[in-house]
Amino acid sequence: MNLEQDPELLAGFLDEAEESLASVGRLFVELEREPGERRIIEAIFRPVHSLKGNAAFFGLMTIKRVAHEMETLLDHVRKGRLSADRPVIDVLLAGLDVLLALTAKVRAGGDDEDAVAVEPLSLRLGEQAARAAGPAPGEDPGADLNAIEAVLPPGDHPARAALGRLRARLAPGTVTVTVPVPAGQPAGRLAALIAAARTATLPEDDAAVVLSELAALRDRAPDDPARSLAQECCDGAQVFIAAMGFEAAGAEFVAERLAKMPWAASPAPPAAVALPAPAAAHASEALEPRPAAKDRSKDSEVIRKDGDGPGKSMRVAETAIDTFLHYVGELVVVGDMFRHLQTRVVATPGMGTLAREFRRANETFAGLSNQLQRSIMGIRRVPVKPLAQKVPRLVRDVAQAIGKEIDSVIEGETVQVDKSLLDLLDAPLTHMVRNSVDHGIETPEKREAAGKPRRGTVTVSFAEAGSHVILSVSDDGAGLNLEAIRKKGESIGLIAPGAPLQEADIVNLIFASGLSTAQKVTDISGRGVGMDVVKRAIEEAGGSINVSTTTGKGSSFRIKMPKGVTTQIVGGYLVRAGGSTYVLPLERVRETFRARPDDRQSLAGRGRCLMRRGQVVPLQELGEVLACRAETWPARGLPVVVVEANRRQLALAVEAVIGVQKVVIRRLAGLPPGAPMLSGAALLGDGHLALVLDLDQLHAAIETTGSAA
Amino acid sequence: MSEHAPPRSRTRRNATDTYLTFALGDESFALPILRVREIIGITDITPVPRMPAHVRGVLNLRGKVIPVIDLRRRMGFEPVPDHKRTCIVIVQTGSGAEAILVGAVVDRVSEVRDIPPSQIEPPPQFGAIADPGCITGVGKGGKHVVMLLDTDRVAGREELPVNLKN
Question: With an 8 Å Cβ cutoff, is A519 touching chain B?
């Protein structure tokens, strides 16, 4: 079996590793807050441990080594020999970064060698591990072995042989430890040696050997008594692994594997697999709580769920889904072609029956392609968790770098969004969180002086609102310094000095390029690039961002995105203007009505407007804006479409309204710069192209050119 | 073009020396054959507003939206109405992930022709050509001289700023 060469297995391993490592980062932050919390330590320990095992399986020895060294340190923490203080957490987080970097390197087709990153880390891990107190009394693994031996049935049993081997390996002097230490650092070498000697424990391979021998034995059992004996041994061996303390996670690792084996599906084994479960059931009050055991029984439940029944899932390459989505998009266009043909067939004399049948077939087709579209969108939906779980770590790192004390709160991490939103929201979220930590929240001293708690809080929440998802980042800091923003805006010429501005207008200045009010530029923020980029990216994806702020109380950034932003299939509102057909995004169209020539009113030197429901709505002739072709207004008037652009209303007079149609948007590539008012081209059912207008850009162009009218 | 070509002495032809020649008015121009994807007849072109005059618009090439430029106007010739022999040469500009197809409207496609480097002279100073930088050299050897065009430049990938307000 040459598994390490199976790229699919490797990809699966990398996915899993990245996923589990991503979840670990935030746990470290929690651990720092509650250093003694076993639940958290166990939760960190498990993924690191299984990474170690799996990495070895794929021959990724450097990853294995780093994971092992982290595990060693974690074990000290777990056993209470070392407290999870800042230096420990720092080095563990550094280790996490190295692991992520290494997995990324392997994913990119490289190996997992990176001496420059690994060796210093290794040294630091060793140094921290060396601070650990010696093993507590009663932790002699030999004693555990004796206890296990007592449980084993008498006779010459493979488990006994395995125990013997384990004992031999545990005996002082027989453990061979290779300690990689950078040359020329004698102190570090000593530290690393001490650490390694203290923590040399059993490789889980040995535990696996015991278990697999036992399992094989049981499977070979000729009769029931023999089988139950073997089963007992299995249980015994698992007790052994669990009793080893250090190997509790190892046992879980093995148990997980066993649970996936076919034999585990037979009625008896679940009890065996989730062996510590009975203990856990009673342990909660009586014994020292064993969260690992508790978690484990939960995990094995998950495994069973994965194994059968409706919860079954599979890994699919993202590109495969994207391709699928693309084809579904094509299908929608074909559907429109059919509709187009249908109207022609219906209009052809003597085609009565055929037309009816055609329509029926067409309707079925449209229904199916709609369902197909909906289901592919459903497939692409994933929880925002990967995004959310980066936040605590980010907050911690930035806060520490600048000497602030900040907690992070995450809400709604189970909210589901289209996969593409995860990538899209990643940079904005990072930016906003950094912003809140760096600019929003005050130093502990300032906070105390203002009568607030020393520790600030950054809250990141995800929420669903109809077809939109809302991401908000709030802080309980000082709020935006409006005066500073205004000054800065004046100094870089964004606004005229002393211009009468509303508060909201000043707040919006933070989205202008080049504006940062940080007193000095730091590594973290303050370069004045960012909020404008964030805003642009979000608006390009059809979303919006806004800020609210209260002086002294804090600020809140809110991003609102359509959930299904990836869909290139959109509702289009087709109009005719300047001799061509254009598509307006349907979601932006507010109303359509016919305006007579004398409905137009002149705004002194600032173009024209319409009165609509008591509101003044600026009026533009679309043909004039786009093709410099003024319409001649017939006495009966022209259709006017009121759209929302830059959160304002804009009335567009057009030659004709063609109707609503689903369109597939294609990117416009290769045109010379200068088409900013277009977001793409749409393929229409009849094979023609229509340009899709970017209403915000259109609005901006009208504003800057002054009214063309 | 060459599907009926029997083995002949020219089979050693070097594709990088091969050009598609075409006419704009009375003058002969050429694009490297390696950049030419296909040639189609004149078809529906959707005009794009606020574009420089030489941008005809976009067309739907089997589901792909590609920009179309009018090579006459690009080179500074007077526009003429499309006619029977007007065609669109689809060329690839850029390379790799940056590769984009662009259509170029020409008056008439002439032939595929080898122009070895020895027959290429540096471009002379032109007075009438709008953007002399488009021309990489002048090919001799045939009946007419042929002006060799830089595909990326012609397609406007490094377009000069365009004043949109007019």
Answer: no
